[in-house]
Amino acid sequence: MVLIGLAAASQASGTLPTAAWQAYKRAFVAADGRVIDRGNGDISHSEGQGYGMLLALMADDRTTFESIWEWSQRNLRRDDGLFGWQWHPNKTPRVPDWNNATDGDLLIAWALVRAGQRWKQPQWIDTARTMARRIREASIANTPFGPVILPAQQGFERGGRYTLNPSYWVYPAIDALASVDDAAVWGQVRAAGLRLLALSRFPMVGGVPPDWIVLHPDARLGLPDDPSRRRFGFDALRIPLYLCWSGITDRDLFTAYLTVWSSDEAPAWIDLATGDRAAYPIQRAHRAVRWVAQRCLGQRASAAGTGATPVIDPADYYGSTLMLLATLAHPNARQLP
């Protein structure tokens, strides 16, 4: 487990400190560019490849960026230019399900736009533009609520009833795609996501959104029947990062997060239907996101006890990734290089 000092992590330049990135690469990025989820059977997924590309960009590591991008194209790219959601090292075929994951597609396209701008590679921007159009065709549904992001092309709509994940609205990615594609459409998608958050704050636990939510044909919002999906948990954890990174400072929503995570003994997840809580407390990644929320609200946030110091834990791909993103999402380091 590697800890990286806060002073380095809080650089206003928006770049990752070298030590943090090198520790992350050693833990999760193979030599061929595969980003490995060590705590989940060593699988890889489009989300991880997208996060890896973004982190490599922010570390100004073009060699690793290109290796991650090339691996993704060789192993996960579909004929339509989007990406299969999961790759298994111990299964045949390696990609048993070619459905996409829309957040992974958004992350990859975002990384390509910004890397193309930084390193003057217009072909990457062209690829991102094509991906943006394909995402609009395959993974955005026009509903009475507005255009919503489907978690994948298949499997999340039945009879006009949509199962949505608010954390799939990767707001800085939406902003980046709006700059190279149809800005009006992406602006509508952005607005629908913010409206979804505004209307899905559950008062039982202070007004936070769930990991998953059901949009009914009459535009009502409800919780899924599956108890594991109606939690405020590890998916919703990403939302403050994306909001802050995009310059959205919704005081009510950020305050709700801070209320729920008011102490280090707060539960890691809460069932928003029953109030049931995890038997274990919030993790380092939660504390890092809490720190981001405090900074976004202009509150003083000390490194001590907040989780602001990034920890690279080789057994925890997701938590380590969120901790590095947290060092880049707060207002003093929001700009991509």
TrEMBL record:
Task: Give the E.C. number(s).
Answer: 3.2.1.-
MF GO annotations: cellulase activity
The domain of life is Bacteria
The biological process GO terms on file are:
cellulose catabolic process
| The keyword Magnesium is assigned to this record | no
Q: Which reaction does it catalyse?
A: Endohydrolysis of (1->4)-beta-D-glucosidic linkages in cellulose, lichenin and cereal beta-D-glucans
Q: What are the protein's UniProt keywords?
A: Carbohydrate metabolism, Cellulose degradation, Glycosidase, Hydrolase, Polysaccharide degradation, Signal
Which InterPro entries does its entry note? 6-hairpin_glycosidase_sf, 6hp_glycosidase-like_sf, Glyco_hydro_8, Glyco_hydro_8_CS
The active site annotation covers 103 (nucleophile)
Tell me where the signal peptide lies.
none
The record's comment on protein family reads: Belongs to the glycosyl hydrolase 8 (cellulase D) family.
The name of this protein is Glucanase
Source species of the chain = Tepidimonas taiwanensis
The gene name reads celY
